Each structure stands twice: as structure tokens, then as C-alpha cells.
Amino acid sequence: MNALTKTNEKRVATESNQGVQGQATRRYLSPRVNITETKDGYFLEAEMPGVSKEGLEVSLEGNELTLVGRRNVHVEGAEVLYRESVGRDFRRVFALDPTIDTSRIEARMENGVLKLHLPKTEKVKPRRISVSA
């Protein structure tokens, strides 16, 4: 297990390499990710070149976020003469920190980069407390 941490050692997500029971073993590429934090939440960017919105699957089960990107590398009626890129799909699984409001996660795909906004729950966001006289 490989923990992804912030510079202040606050745990945002933990990568999980556990397989799903009952499924045939399939090899995937692990997309490179960048995680940044703001006062309102976290932003995760996963690089998945060749994956379109239609080939993307983002799922959440409990606190486990799974990213799967499927590439269509086959051209109908064409023969591959030369290939440098690997024809594998992408997959990465993260265990989300409880401070993330999973009901408000947003995702979009831009130029082969999956961009996720993982908002913090209201109770952990910094807030100003007014003082009465």
C-alpha cells in the first residue's frame, strides 16, 4: 500500500492494490496523479492519454474511489504495423479520508486528464467564529 500524503503529513487518500474477488486478473497501467489541497477541498488530476469520456468509469463504494479508463487502440479493418504505446487500460483505487464529502465529488475529463474535485465536509472547513459582547 502506498500512502499519498500532503507536506503537512495529513492523509488525503491511500492507494489500494487489492484485486476484486471473482474477476479475472487483468493488467492495468496506473495513471500518474497530482493531488492539491485548498481550504475547501482537494483536487486530483489523473493522466489517462487516449481515454475519452465514454471510456471512463469513476465509482465510489464506501470510502473507496476507483478510476478506470479504457482506451480504444484498435482500428476496425486495420493491421498494426508498428506500435510504441502499450495497449493497456488504466486503473487506480484510492481509500478516501473521512474529511471528504463523498456526496459532492465532481469529475470531468479534459484532454486525457481526469479532474476530480473532492470537497471537504463542512465540519472540517476553516470558519470564522463571531464573538458577541
Structural description of this entry:
The protein is 0% helix and 44% strand. The protein is mostly beta strands and 133 residues long. It has one domain (2-123): Immunoglobulin-like (Sandwich). The chain has a 5-stranded antiparallel beta sheet with strand order 1-2-7-6-5, with no helix packed on it. It has a 4-stranded antiparallel beta sheet with strand order 3-4-9-8, with no helix packed on it. β8 (106-110) and β9 (113-119) form a beta hairpin.
> What's the β-strand tally?
9
Overall pLDDT confidence = 81
The first-level CATH class is given as Mainly Beta
- Element-level helix/strand string: EEEEEEEEE
Overall 3D shape? elongated
Question: Which key terms come to mind for this protein?
Answer:
9 strands, 133 residues, 5-stranded antiparallel beta sheet, elongated, 4-stranded antiparallel beta sheet, Immunoglobulin-like, mainly beta
Summarize the structure.
With 133 residues, the chain is an all-beta fold. The chain contains no helices and nine strands.
SSE map:
Elements: E1 2-5, E2 11-15, E3 33-37, E4 41-47, E5 51-61, E6 64-71, E7 90-96, E8 106-110, E9 113-119
Antiparallel strand pairs: 1-2, 2-7, 3-4, 4-9, 5-6, 6-7, 8-9
